[in-house]
Amino acid sequence: MNTEEVVEKVINGVVNINVQKMVIDRYMRMEEMHGSGSGFVICKDVVATNYHVVSGTEDVFVTTIDGRNFKGRIYDFDKTLDLAFVKVDNLGIDPLILGDSDRIKVGEMVLAIGNPLGILGSPTVTFGIISALKRTIYTDDSIYENLIQTDAAINPGNSGGPLVNMRGEIIGITSTIIANVQGIGFAIPINTLKVLLNSLQKYGKIVKPTLGIRGVTINDMIAEYYRLPVRQGVWVLDVQRGGPADRAGLKRGDIILELDDKEVIGIEDLRYKLETLMDKDSSELLVMRKNDKIRLKVTHISE
């Protein structure tokens, strides 16, 4: 398909999202703030977007490409993954086709579609390539893993819009997690969103696997002070009795190094990796106990 055909196939399913939030200003007064972003129709009467676009509000206003306005509500969300679903009754737009983000390749041409800066009217389309895969980004309070990097322009207001391949399939959800950076944009892989969507359709809500532990991120200072044998991972401080980790044999003092053969950097990283395994019944931990490495199979329990 050429660019025009891809845009024609996708653009009707892209929407503008506006929110109103009440915040406290520096003089301790309540002030109304307005924000905007993008989204796209993922199943009947449900729009996918970024969590940070709709966080802190209950009322979400959705505008379609033909100018129709709807009042939606937050269906469910996952703050860790920065994804949210908005329910919009009687939207009447066909869902877009979801691709397979595990099959994309560096150099592949893509389009980013959204509403930069909250500009009303038809969504803006930008063109680029996949620049890199499996990027990890650290912010002040979050860690984002397995991101798609693209040079397609992604500006404020684009967040939550689709990243589209040249077959007209959605392969990612664009996100402006790093502001004021030229030539670098990021998107959350669509397969991550599919896991949440499957949970939503199966249970009516997003369910999250839990290990049942309390732990701390190991850094150089902690490792040196407590004379730990490694300088990254999760140091287990407590294990919930009868929980998944307890039944698997995890013990206080163990250090979690890997989850399903992927290294665990810290506690937030462990939470993130667990949430991407929502569709699995079990996973394997690589654990250091004293100076020995052991593998434990953990059966998931969701909350």
List descriptors.
single chain, 303 residues, alpha+beta, Thrombin, subunit H, Pdz3 Domain, 3 domains, six-stranded antiparallel β-barrel, six-stranded antiparallel beta barrel, 6 helices, 20 strands, 15% helix, 43% strand
Oligomer: single chain
- Structural class, from helix and strand content? alpha+beta
| CATH structural fold name of the largest domain | Thrombin, subunit H
SSE string, helix = H, strand = E?
HEEEHEEEEEEEEEHEEHEHEEHEEE
Radius of gyration, whole Å: 21 Å
At the fourth level of CATH, the homologous superfamily of the largest domain is: Trypsin-like serine proteases
Number of strands: 20
Notes on the structure:
By secondary structure, this protein is of the alpha+beta class. It folds into three domains: 3-87, Thrombin, subunit H (Beta Barrel); 101-203, Thrombin, subunit H (Beta Barrel), CATH 2.40.10.10; 209-302, Roll (Pdz3 Domain). Helix content is 15%, strand content 43%. The protein contains six helices and 20 strands. The strands form four sheets. The chain has a six-stranded antiparallel β-barrel. The protein has a six-stranded antiparallel β-barrel with strand order 7-8-9-12-11-10. Strands 14, 15, 16, 17, 18 and 19 form a six-stranded antiparallel β-sheet that branches. A hairpin with a 4-residue loop joins β8 (124-138) and β9. The chain is globular. The termini are far apart.
